[in-house]
Design a protein that fits this description.
mainly alpha
């Protein structure tokens, strides 16, 4: 059942974001920033944690989940390191995901022939 919940929640999030992109004149970069900020705010309010427990990867993989990870990292780092944790926590919490994205993106560019759109 965990896979089913992850699938439909992740699909619903993606569908809602696609509708937002199609129906508004917001640029994709602004929508991405909106999603990360919304995930951080929902995590700070305490809504996103139970949502992730219910949906698993369906809620933690989209950009909303990235914002939540940043928030959780900052919250933990502030507890352990004080004010300096505001600057360090997000980087420590998201370092593995960002590193994986960079490494796999680079490997994909070596395997395939990337080119600019015309």
């Amino acid at each position: 059942m965990d896979y089913v919940n992850a699938f439909w929640v992740g699909g619903l999030i993606c569908a809602l974001i696609q509708i937002l992109m199609d129906r508004t004149k917001l640029m994709p970069g602004r929508i991405m920033v909106l999603l990360v900020c919304a995930g951080a705010v929902l995590g700070a309010v305490g809504i996103y944690g139970p949502f992730v427990k219910f949906a698993g990867a369906g809620a933690s993989v989209p950009l909303l989940g990235f914002g939540n990870i940043l928030w959780e990292g900052v919250k933990e780092a502030v507890k352990s390191e004080g004010f300096l944790g505001v600057f360090l926590g997000g980087f420590k919490a998201s370092a593995a995901g960002i590193s994986a994205a960079l490494i796999f993106g680079y490997l994909a560019s070596l395997l395939f022939n990337p080119r600019m759109k015309k």
